[in-house]
Amino acid sequence: PADLGALTYCPSATPPNELNVVEVRLAGDSDFDVEALRRNFYATSSCGVCGKASIDQVRLQSRRRPQAFTVADDTLLGLPDTLRGAQAQFERTGSLHAAGLFDVDGSLLALREDVGRHNAVDKLIGSFVLDGQWPPPASALMVSGRTSFEIVQKALLAGLAFIASVSGPSSLAVDLADEAGLTLIGFLRHGGYNLYTHAQRLLHQGAALTTVPTRR
Questions:
Q1: Does 12 share its domain with 115?
Q2: 10 among known catalytic residues
Q3: Phi, psi of 181 (to 5 degrees)
Q4: Is residue 63 part of a domain?
Q5: pTM (2 decimals)?
């Protein structure tokens, strides 16, 4: 946020999408590296890298080291129901994804919904940033769909270290989580889950656990 000087809607945008186009001006003392952006391209909210650049080009470095904490698996098993129960818009429409941030005791800190799960993650992280509450305390990100490379990348850049999902991750998501030190959980449902990376943050207490080997 400190790098931003001004953020305004573009006057040239035409209806009905005049609120979807913005102009960003950087602060005078910003050290924003335009060439680095051109080299790395950008991470979109779409599903997949989409051929914009190689995976190595869009692997970005986290500004924070992954956190050291543990989450008990009986706490973990309760996250999907808590997430689903808090989805007010899904209850009305049946067609929205959700991203929620939970503390290590399973309490829901915040939730955001969107038709795209990537957008829901952006909204969730952005809500904390705008309120001046980022980084949050030790916490886990829970998403309602599968975990893509981009979602792991967003979590990494935000300094989150624990990601869980009711569906499976992509192989690229697993690779990035493994090399970056993030704990990645998938298929969290029906009393069980798959553990893909970094078990040190998981306190196993007897839930049905499948440990999935990573590629080395």
A1: no
A2: no
A3: 85, 20
A4: no
A5: 0.74
